[in-house]
Design a protein that fits this description.
The protein is an alpha/beta fold and 482 residues long. It has 16 helices and 18 strands. It has helices at residues 3-25, 46-60, 65-79, 83-94, 99-112, 150-163, 177-195, 209-216, 230-237, 261-273, 290-302, 311-321, 337-343, 364-367, 383-394, 408-418, and strands at 42-43, 122-126, 129-137, 140-144, 167-171, 201-204, 223-227, 242-246, 252-255, 285-289, 305-307, 354-358, 374-380, 400-404, 422-425, 449-450, 456-457, 464-471. Its EC number is 1.2.1.-.
Amino acid sequence: MQTSDLEQTIRKILKEELAKQSTTDAEPATESAQPEGLGNGIFKTVDDAVAAAKQAQEIYADKPLVFRRKVIQAIKDGFGPHLKEIAQAIKDETGMGTVSAKESKLKNALFNTPGVELLDPEVKTGDGGMTMYEYTPFGVIGVVGPSTNPGETVINNSIMMLSGGNTLFFGAHPGAKNITRWMIEHLNKYVEKATGMKNMVVSLEVPSIESVQEMMHHPDIAMLAVTGGPAVVHQALISGKKAIGAGAGNPPAMVDQTANIDLAAHDLVTSCAFDNNILCTAEKEVVVESSVKDELIQKMQADGAFLVTDQDQIATLAKMTIQDNGTPSRKYIGKDATFILDAAKISYTGDPKVIIFEAAKDHPLVTTEMLMPILPIVSCPDFKAVLQTAVEVEGGHHHTASIHSENMPHINQAAHRMNTSIFVANGPTFAATGVGDDGYFTGAAAFTIATPTGEGTTTTKTFTRRRRFTSPEGFSLRNWEA
């Protein structure tokens, strides 16, 4: 037998053995074969991808909750050992942020996203019978992911939506198409090996804006969940479908004269620098009472911030990082502070993590969501002016705001007046996403924060129908009349 024939024989034997192993290890999903496409959830066309996801969902919808838990556990077990390499791959492809922060965010998404446990039914009984509420799937959910958190969003959204009994069509951002495809292919491998199910999350071989628009209007897409800029969120909102929109923000951080300035300075620098400020929840400007402004700036410098005082240099930063259309330049989004300073030809010493400077409230670096470690500081004469200014610069996005204060009425007033989906007192804003810079999690993971549509930090329940069942002769242990 020649070498080439031997190789073919070996490949055939291995393929047959792997097929037997797969059949043994995974419980059968259906009697009919599911569509293959290019394999592991990747398809050439929107129609093929949605058809495969729909077929999978119709099978999945009939599975018990224990099956859903098995799917989620397969995702956790599969991705768990690879978070560092995924973080590095995201950094390499997008060029944004830091590997250490991405690893923390991935860990948060994988192990801190609530799942099936949120779907316990609600039951009310009384003399008039019984009413029960249960949470059931929508079907195939059309998802659009960002380039800032591509891997994290695949994990977070998949766990939430699959826990709800749905399947997903994932529209990858072109700037993160490689890592997004890798995540989806491997997620499907992990789930198929554990359960036999294929095409739980589907995507396209070549993602595009046109394919996202086609997906949004596809009759078999039951609802939309969009994490991205205002334009794509707007497209979802006018699609005629139920849409969850995670839009823009410009989170202000307020500091009043009662604040613990040491803690405030540390939290502001650490949180702004985390993943080079690409989190939409991250502090984008500081609004501080004048009486503590100088002390705050001094303490921020001691914590790693670099203060720019030359007005020409500040103007250079603005001109360089903001495009003519008023949006931040992608060349500098998520880049290190030193990269931005070097590009602006601003001399510095050490290794600054954040660039700070004083500015008026109408400065473009204050009013624009920059997504880079640039943190302007606006001073106001008193707390009333601080709060009013913070409301103005937040821009009505209702996304995120924070305050550093030891005055409880100030905290209460600010939380009420800001009316944001996320409000943080005396801490870094990334805490509200469930991640800590020290690796400890402080709440459920939140990567799709639906501010335009009002759901706020989304959970599994967000992606289910709340259905009501009523029985006038319902069951009750309290009373029984024959």
